């Protein structure tokens, strides 16, 4: 629905380098054409191994943390090209600076990808905190992101904490979460594993915040010290129209 | 949307016993009330252990093989009551007959549950054959049943074999399936791991069959000798309306 491009000038301790990226986005164009394609270019002087390490780390924290409908594509690709035209090679310090810029750039494109997902009307960030392992944090975040009941509640701007806790609970079946707390758009709705009595003024504030285009969900499991984030789209009528009326 | 009741007279080698069951169905009635409840009664003379074994085996093959939207409920229950009023106690032979009747009864109710699922307009049976293990067969069947792209294609009566193979492939990531074959409503659309050129007459037939209220999906993985079945509902506008417009 809109072009997904982004560019950054990166001032590193070794000098200025440029980063640019464009992507074509989520949702199959036709059975014969791939799903997501992203091209990233830079004029930094990078060797193939260095470029691969930088890209993998950034993709892992951006494109691998988004979900439109939980479906795996067979064709998603991110390409990374480094021309070396700036003549700037990176040392440890400037590599950190470059890596941060690359991650910011890819996160921006990844969020555009979700916002442009099939039928998406809003974008949610779910942050899972205090999990035992990063793997656990990721799977809980993904379970919430992929839950049709959560996605439809978000579409309807309903602060339905029960569906969020339900999705997390199904993912952690058999676990007891006496310390769990949940914030929706910054308003606490679950504390110490139980529903919080939200004061009327906060309820009204939350109701208004839920209508915004960006929704923040923060779930603290109270189990450990690992965390993960996933960005996802809501599920509305437009998704059904696009995918039920498409014919092979 | 409709009452879910079923009763059977079971002629066993030890005499006649009766089985009856009723259920209230999928979709929360209100936040304070449970999701699915099913009550099964019989006048056979059953001990608690015998009844539990019979029920668990039947539930495993019926209620545990259905999916509306892939969401786990916190409250689903099946109760089994045996009055003994018939005076008929079961021996090995009659117990097999009784078990078959119980499974048939629960399958009937489970299918009614799916057909009455939120927004459901049709019911699909996905049968996964020739898997390496029953666990693998079940997880592939469930991946297909829970795929929003498959569910919307079914809603739109589209014989989209690509989405079905895609869901199976994502579940078996990294596996090569050179012997896979797929039948939709009895028409073969994938053979030996590739799209089959379906003759025009069969295409027309398939197109008509896809519009029916019951759709049969049969995926042979060509890997082993285990199989599993899952029954699921389609995903259409009504599901979105029910779940996005419901407010806590």
Please, could you describe this protein's structure?
2 copies of one chain form a homodimer. By secondary structure, chain A is of the alpha/beta class. The first copy, chain A, has 2 domains: 4-115, 4-Layer Sandwich (L-amino peptidase D-ALA esterase/amidase), CATH 3.60.70; 123-244, Ubiquitin-like (UB roll) (Roll). In chain A, 35% of the residues lie in helices and 27% in strands. Chain A is built from 7 helices and 11 strands. Chain A has helices at 48-60, 92-115, 134-146, 148-155, 161-171, 200-209, 237-245, and strands at 4-12, 15-24, 37-42, 66-67, 77-82, 123-131, 181-184, 187-191, 194-195, 214-220, 226-233. Chain A has a 7-stranded mixed beta sheet with strand order 4-11-6-10-7-8-9, sandwiched between helices. Chain A has a 4-stranded mixed beta sheet with strand order 1-2-3-5, with helices on one face. In chain A, strand 8 and strand 9 form a beta hairpin. In chain A, helix 3 packs across helix 5 (161-171). The first copy, chain A, starts with a strand and ends with a helix. Residues 28-34 of chain A have low confidence and may be disordered. Chain A binds chain B through residues 31, 69-72, 74, 147-149, 152-153, 155-156, 158-162, 166-167, 169-170, 173, 235-237, 239-241, 243-248, and chain B through 31, 69-72, 74, 147-149, 152-153, 155-156, 158-162, 166-167, 169-170, 173, 235-237, 239-241, 243-248.
What overall form of chain A do the CA principal axes indicate? globular
Strand order of the largest sheet of chain A: 4-11-6-10-7-8-9
Give the DSSP E fraction of chain A (strand runs of 2 or more residues): 25-35%
Averaging pLDDT over every residue of chain A, what do you get?
92
